[in-house]
Write a structure and sequence with these properties.
49% strand, four-stranded antiparallel β-sheet, mainly beta, globular, single chain
Length: 120
């Protein structure tokens, strides 16, 4: 059974950093496009970044350019989202997702999310 489990969320002060992790089971992430999405309170879910099976990166959100980085560890079968210079506007539940297609397509599998709160 394909499963994605996020971890690493928490409370961080503005300007701080967090690294989110997404662990996959039942399939190899390096064969999939894997993305991070987020949903802030009262807002629709939005895409953040995506990493395709060839290593190409798609930025879905202009607001995170230069601050967030997506990466994959094939040996650990995990994908990460390194978030720097965090702002209150980054507060959201962050979801890991994957698809056998490319980053331009809707995701097929989703994790349950991890909450990131940026506040002083």
């Amino acid at each position: 059974q394909l499963q994605l489990v996020e971890s690493g969320g928490g409370l961080v002060q503005p300007g701080g950093s967090l690294r989110l992790s997404c662990a996959a089971s039942g399939f190899r992430l390096d064969y999939y496009a894997t993305a991070w999405f987020r949903q802030a309170p009262g807002k629709e879910r939005e895409g953040v970044m995506c990493l395709d099976y060839g290593g190409g990166i798609t930025n879905y959100a202009d607001s995170v350019k230069g601050r967030f980085t997506i990466s994959r560890d094939n040996a650990k079968n995990m994908v990460y989202l390194q978030m720097n210079s965090l702002q209150p506007g980054d507060t959201a539940v962050y979801y890991c997702a994957a698809t056998l297609k490319t980053c331009s397509y809707p995701m097929d599998w989703w994790g349950k999310g991890t909450l990131v709160t940026v506040s002083s």
